Amino acid sequence: MSTKMVSFFLLLLFIIHFSQATCQMLPAYARTQGEWRLLHRSIGISAMHMQLLKNNQVVIFDRTDFGPSNISLPGRRCRFDPNDRALKKDCTAHSILYDIRTNGFRALTVQTDTWCSSGAVLPDGSLVQTGGYNDGDHVIRTLVPCNGRNCDWVEFPRSLSQRRWYASNQILPDGRVIIVGGRAQFNYEFYPGHSPSSSKSFWLNFLRETKDGHENNLYPFLHLLPDGKLFIFANTRSILFNYKRNHIVREFPAIPGGDPRNYPSSGSSVLLPIDENAPVVPEIMICGGATRKAFQLANPRVFQRACSTCGRLKITKEEPAWKMENMPMPRVMSDMLILPDGDVIIINGARSGTAGWESARNPVTRPLIYNPNGKAGARFSVMAAASRPRLYHSTAVLLTDGRVLVGGSNPHKYYNFTGVDYPTDLSLESFSPPYLSPVYDRLRPRIIRTYEIIRYKNPFSLTFTVQRFLKTGAVSVRIVAPSFNTHSFSMNQRMVVLKRVRLSRVGSNVYRVAASGPSKPEIAPPGYYLLFLVHDGIPSSGVWVKIQ
Q1: Which domains does the chain have, with CATH numbers?
Q2: Known PANTHER family for this protein (predicted)?
Q3: Which of 111, 161, 416, 493 is spaced 20 to 30 A from 375 at the CA atom?
C-alpha cells in the first residue's frame, strides 16, 4: 500500500474518531428531547404538593375538603372531622408515600385540611409542613422518614401564630424555618421558636404593599442568599431582607413589563447554582406569569396570553438590573427545577389564563431546558411533549436518579373526570432529561464511594468510575437540596457546586476527586442533600449526604 494511501486511511480514522467524540461532547439536548414514562394511571389522589425525602420516598398530598378521593385509608380506618366542609366522616386518604425504588405507594392519614400549604425539610431529614385551610390553617404537621410502614403524619394544632394559607417557607442557616405571608397575612414567623418572643409573628409591610386587587403576592418567592439575608419577590417587586432585624436592606427594581409573577399569576423562580470555585455572585431567575387582569378576565372566560419572559437579577451589583429574555412560548403555572447538570427545566403549565378554578386554557405540554451559561438567544431547548396536560395544582420534583417526577392537575373545586375540558388527573409520570439518554452511558459517571457526612469547609473524597474519561476540567461535584413543590414554586431549592481540590486516577476507569464541604451554612443550610458527580455535562445518580 502506498504512503499516500496509508496517510489517507489514518486521516479518515482520525476524522471518524474526532466526529464521534465531538458528537458525544455536544449538549445532550442537541441529540434528544428527553423521554416521558407513565408510572401510574392513578395514585388515588391529585398531587397538589410533593417532597422528596432522604429515604428515596416522595410524600404527596392534596387537600381534604372536596369529598372522597380514589384511595381508601388502610385497615378500614376513617377520618372524623366535624369541621370538614365536605365530608365529616371520610374513609379515603388524601396523602400517599411513593417509593422510587419499587414504584409502589401507600396511603397516609392527614387529619386537617392541607389545601395550599407549605413545607420544608429540617436538618434531621423530617418534613415539617405548615398551614392550609379551614381547620388546618394554624396546624403544623411532621413526617419522619422510615423504611417500614409505620411512619405517618403527626399533627400539632394551633401551633402557628397566624393563619398560613398560600404561604412560603425557607430553611435558614440555623436550621429553623421562616414562614412568610399567606392570604391576608402581611407578616412572618419561625419554626421552631427559640424563645417565647420568637414564636410570634413579625410585621412585613412589603407584603401589604404588593397586594393588588387580585392579590398576586401569594406564595412569595423566597431565596436564602450567601450573606444570610433573604431575597423576597412578590407581585413585580423584590427586596433584600434581614429577617434577624426585621429590616429591608434594599429594594430592587421592579421586573420589567408590569406583569405579576406570583399567585394567582403564578410564574416560577429559582436561585441559580452557586459555584464555590469562583467568586460567588447570587443570581435570581424568574419565568412566566400572567397579565395583571388575567384572573379577573378568566371569570367571564376570557383567557389572556400568559407571560413569555424570564428575568435574571444579580443582586449584589451596585446597580442591579433585570436582564430579560423570551421563552419559546408563553407559560403560566409552570415549575422550575434545577437539574443535576446545572440547567433549569421549566415544566407543566398553560399558555393562557391564570391559576385558579377553571381559569386557564391551552396547556403547555413541552418542557423547556434552559442553559444559564449558554449564549444569549440560544439558551432554551424545547423538549418532547407530554401526553397529558398539567394545569392548576400540578407538581414536579427532581428524583435521585436525575428524572423529574410529575403529577397532579385539578382545576376544579372537586374531583371531576367527565364533561370538562381538563379532567382531574390522578396519574404519576416521569420525565427523563436528555442527559439520561443511553447514548451518553459511556460518559456517565457512577459514584462508588463517598462520605455520608460532609462538614463545612472540611475536605472529603469521592471515588467514581466512568467508561470513557474525557478531561479533568469536565468533572464537578454538586449538591442539590430537594424542594417542597406546590403552586409553581419549589421552596428551599438550591444547588451548590463544591470547591474541587484535585482529581486522580486510582485504577482502571476509576478516579478519585477531592473536594471541600460548603464554606458556611448560609451557602448550604444544614441537612440532607443529593450529591451528584457531573462529567462533561452528564450527571451520575445522586447519593444522599448530610451537610453539617
Answers
A1: 440-547 (2.60.40.10)
A2: GLYOXAL OXIDASE-RELATED PROTEIN (PTHR32208:SF71), SECRETED PROTEIN-RELATED (PTHR32208)
A3: 493
Give me the half-sphere count of Cα atoms (radius 13 Å) on the Cβ side of residue 524: 31
Task: Provide Rg for the chain, Cα atoms.
Answer: 24
pTM above 0.90, yes or no: yes
Instruction: Give the span between the Cα atoms of 176 and 195, in whole angstroms.
Output: 12
Q: Which residues contact 42 (CB under 8 A, 6 or more apart)?
A: 70, 426, 427
d(CA 429, CA 107): 18
C-alpha cell at 528: 440532607
C-beta of residue 89 within 8 angstroms of C-beta of residue 102: no
Pick from 282, 264, 163: nearest CA to 226: 282
Cell numbers found for residue 494: 438550591
CB 273 within 8 A of CB 295: no
Q: How far apart are CA 464 and CA 20, in angstroms?
A: 24
As a whole number of angstroms, the distance between CA 34 and CA 339 comes to: 13
Contact criterion met (CB below 8 Å) for 431 and 367: yes
Q: Which three cell numbers stand for residue 269?
A: 423562580
> For residue 264, is the peptide bond before it cis, meaning its omega torsion is within 30 degrees of 0?
yes
Q: In the sheet that 323-326 helps form, which strands lie side by side, from edge to edge?
A: 268-271, 283-287, 309-314, 323-326
322-326-332-336 Cα dihedral, nearest 10 degrees? -70
Cβ atoms of 331 and 347 closer than 8 Å: no
pLDDT (tens, 9 = 90+) of the chain, 548 residues, equals 454 444 444 334 433 343 333 333 334 445 689 999 999 999 999 999 999 999 999 999 999 999 999 999 998 999 999 989 899 999 999 999 999 999 999 999 999 999 999 999 999 999 999 999 999 999 999 999 998 888 999 999 999 999 999 999 999 999 999 999 999 999 999 999 865 555 699 999 999 999 999 999 999 999 999 999 999 999 999 999 999 999 999 999 999 999 999 999 999 999 999 999 999 999 999 999 999 999 999 999 999 999 999 999 999 999 999 999 999 999 999 999 999 999 999 999 999 999 999 999 999 999 999 999 999 999 999 999 999 999 999 999 999 999 999 999 999 999 999 999 999 999 999 999 999 999 999 999 999 999 999 999 999 999 999 999 988 889 999 999 999 999 999 999 999 999 999 999 999 999 999 999 999 999 999 999 999 999 999 999 999 999 99
Q: What Cα–Cα distance (Å) separates residue 471 from each residue in 15, 22, 144, 163, 477?
A: 20, 13, 42, 54, 15
Contact 113, 63 (CB under 8 A): yes
Helix (H) or strand (E) run with residue 242 in it: strand 237-242
Q: Is the peptide bond before 192 cis (omega within 30 degrees of 0)?
A: yes
Contact at 8 Å (CB) between 225 and 242? no
- The CA-based dihedral angle spanning residues 44, 50, 51, 55, taken in that order and rounded to the nearest 10 degrees: 20
Question: Exposed, middle or buried, 455 (CB in 10 Å: 0-12/13-18/19+)?
Answer: middle
3-state secondary structure of 56: coil
